[in-house]
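Input.
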Amino acid sequence: MTITKTPVYFLSHGGPNIMYQIDHPAYKKLQEIGKEITTKVKPLAVVVFSAHWQAQPRKIEVNSAEMTDLIYDFYGFPRHYYKEKYPNVGSTEIAKQVMSLMRQNGIEVEGVKRGLDHGVWASFKCGKHTGPSILEDQVDADEISAAFDPEDNPLNVPVVQVSLFDSEDPIQHYRLGQAVTSLREQGIQIIVSGMAVHNLRDLRFTSDKSTPMPYTASFDEALKDAVTVPPAEREKAMAALLERDDAREAHPKFDHLLPIFVGAGAADQDMGKRLWTLKEGSMSWAQYRFGDIAVN
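Output.
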């Protein structure tokens, strides 16, 4: 079997409610990307970085366990959200490989046992809803099929989650991505999960409005401009994003922005491309891919 280098994906994952918003454009787009990965990329495994796991300022953690429980790292949602399932299996061998690459690149790392957080599994579950209702207490957890559903859209490969640093250093996270770029040559899919614009503080003021906040529009386009420059210029252009006047409006904390720095680092010399965006209130749902899909 010939192994071709995988692209890198940045997913804007939204909140856990995206699992049920079957008419939301982002739901459909995440489903399309899932199909692209399973039917065209066909990875042998997935290594994923999420905004919802920041380990230590100078130390990375990797889930090295094969069987773990999901993490329901959200609060105040209806009860059925906490009954959701997403079948997955990790890989001790791939986790060891990830940790070895990091050590080779001077990154302190530790293997731990930790389940997938909602920045991973909620977006992976964006698939078609087959049940009669999505109202509270009327949803069977098995009625929601996943973007990587074993029957409708099988992924059927190990998923290994890796933390971010507990810092807001963009270059540190760019280097983190560079450390694992060689995984792509082995058919391993790197996915980074965050949000292109993420201001929860303003969400209550904009949740019933389709018009984006001014900073949503401006930062979303600035992000595209930085990500899509030639790779030799990308690190500098992306780091400059954090110095923009609208940066702290678009991201009061940079945790949801940092995953795309990991993705850009892992992309090496591959170009970044914005696949789609939706500027919605105080959020942007922009989705990115670095690199092309090999034509077999």
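The two ends are 11 Å apart (CA to CA).
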